[in-house]
Amino acid sequence: MSTSIESIAVIGSGQMGRGIAQVAAMSDYSVKVYDIDKKALDFAKDFIQKQLEKGASKGKWEESFVQKSMDKIEFSAQIDDLKDCDLVVEAATENKGIKFEIFKELDRILKPSAILASNTSSISITEIAAVTKRPTQVAGMHFMNPVPVMKLVEGIKGLETTDETFEAVKACAEKMGKVFIKASDYPGFAVNRVLMPMINEACYALFEGVASVSDIDSAMKLGCNQPMGPFELADFIGLDTCLAIMEVLHDGLGDTKYRPCPLLKQYVSAGRLGRKNKRGFYEY
Ligand code: CAA
Asked: Residue 268: CB within 6 Å of ligand 1?
């Protein structure tokens, strides 16, 4: 099997997908971004162009690099357009059913040598791989938000993922200028296994009246040098996403220490989802 990656398809043109597409194009990969929503694709194209122009105006790269990078990206609402890609990075909605359907479809249309990666933050790579006929060529490639800024890619090796697949994914992340770490396929992998209980604990501290939202955030920013406090970060990630990941940790590891905070559940029930709808622990 060839594992040389030259072209990358990105599934989903939301916050993560468009960031992955931007960084891949800037790293000289040919990129195809797929989304079922044409409007989302138009928004992503415009967003990436503006990000590239912003970088040029700050002197991070030449003006000519903006068009050169844009020329590397194609946007499509036809999944069949992805069929010749060497690697797919799926960054669709964090929902098992949706991801399973996408992976079945990708497995059907992509060439046999193609690698299928998921940017999932918590769904089992082994389970995703099992819906395909190429489980040895499926891996996790978990980028952090904002993708162009954060240095990490967390690589996840499913039960059947071969070393060859994993090395190809690692080389691709490194070509994108990222630092790659290896995590095993257990709930939350490495990043969210540590990050989400911290955010959940901040919610418990608020729930129990230990300190206010802004004081807990100040404590962690000024006392622990974190760039964002846990509530700012939770709003940035999305409270629904934080809750979903806590539920994966709780169900998958079965330990009561992962019990999602009732306050977090209540905020999500109230439709306070964070920055994306302008209301979370803060108002925007
Ligand atoms: N896209 C591209 N670039 C961005 C950006 C975005 N969305 N947001 C900020 N930037 C860039 C800015 O252009 C700026 O670049 P320069 O320094 O070259 O000018 C730089 O980032 C700093 O931005 P700002 O000065 O506007 O703001 P800041 O200093 O407050 O930094 C931040 C913003 C980078 C988001 C910083 O607050 C931070 O690092 N926060 C923590 C983010 C984090 O923890 N992310 C991981 C979340 S967990 C996750 O993603 C995984 C999961 O599964 C949940």
From this structure: no
Residue 282 phi/psi, 5-degree rounding, is -115, 165
With a 6 Å cutoff on the Cβ, whether 59 touches ligand 1 is no
Q: Is residue 235 part of a domain?
A: yes
Supply the range of the domain harboring residue 89.
Answer: 7-183
Are 122 and 94 in contact by the 8 Å Cβ rule? The answer is yes
Give yes or no for residue 237 CB within 6 A of ligand 1: yes
| 158 lies in the same domain as 39 | yes
The residue whose C-alpha atom lies closest to atom 53 belonging to ligand 1 is 121
In the block, tokens 């079965």 appear at 254
- C-beta of residue 151 within 8 angstroms of C-beta of residue 179: yes
CA-closest residue to ligand 1 atom 42: 145
Report the distance separating Cα 247 and Cα 269, nearest Å: 15
Same-domain pairing of 111 and 218: no
Cα–ligand 1 centroid distance for 146 (angstroms): 5
Residue 135 half-sphere exposure toward CB, CA atoms < 13 A: 12
76 is catalytic: no
Position 208 scores a pLDDT of 98
pTM for the complete prediction? 0.95
Q: Is any ligand 1 atom within 6 A of the Cβ of residue 205? A: no
- What's the confidence (pLDDT) of residue 4? 84
Do residues 169 and 228 share a domain?
no
CATH of the domain at 47: 3.40.50.720
Mean per-residue pLDDT, 95-110: 96
Q: Is the pLDDT of residue 195 over 60?
A: yes
Mean pLDDT of 227-238: 97
Nearest CA to ligand 1 atom 27: 227
Q: What percent of the chain has pLDDT over 70?
A: 99
